[in-house]
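Follow-up to my earlier ticket, as requested here are the two runs.
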Amino acid sequence: MKKQIATNAAPKAVGPYSQAVAAGDFLFASGQIPLDPATGEIVEGGIEAQAERVFLNLKAVLNEAGLDFSDVVSATVYLADINDFATVNTIYSTHFTGEILPARCAFQVAALPKQAKLEISCVAYRG
């Protein structure tokens, strides 16, 4: 069984995709960039502000599905500049805590939508 997950607390999908899809016990969250859901624009500030916005957006999608960061089993971090890795990693570690952390990969990409500095997608498990 599949179910689309959508919330106004995160940016609306800007293309033919869902904010997230629940499939059985798993939730597949689409990549979130640092868009303010109220304005649809990239948040002001550097990588720190953008990372915090991405995590707020992911949290909203997870919460809409009745989940939180402790349910995430895998995350993918896309960076416009790999030199931002350490800063993003520090912020990431404030949202993902606990004994079992998600599996993760992080890498630099050529470009992200709307000139965002980062995008994060994740998979969560409702155990």
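Run two:
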Amino acid sequence: MQLFSTFENQPGLEMAISTLEKHGIKKEDIFAVPLDNRQEERKVFDTLHRSDGTSLIDIGMALATAFSVVGASIGFKLSWGPIYWGLIGAFIGFVIGFAIRLLTEVVLKKKKRLLKGKQSEVILIIDCKESQSELVENILWSHFALGVAKVKNT
């Protein structure tokens, strides 16, 4: 049976490995693989195949609506009329809202675009007998594993 678990690179991982060795798991049956974390920055603009769930046009649409209403209202008194001034107001509101949202995403939320939360830095693979699997799983959980999975050998 194989058990897979993920850990942060911390002393809990080393303690889990030493505890497994004390309970009869051979050193040759324990395999640790460190992961490389993302080095490049996350992209602000979405593509067709990848989206981060944030919208850059939400504030722009709200401001476009508000500015178009104001522009159309004022347009009754101006020479071009309410339709043109409503469209001009909508365009100006959208540009202002898009600029605000882009500024907040690029400058203020730069750290948010990095990978959030705890990152799995090491994958630990343990070969053991099926009778030892519960013991190994409990040891991994007690040493702060982020996740544990069992695979039976056939």
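The only thing I checked on run two: Residues 58-108 form one domain. Let me know what else you need.
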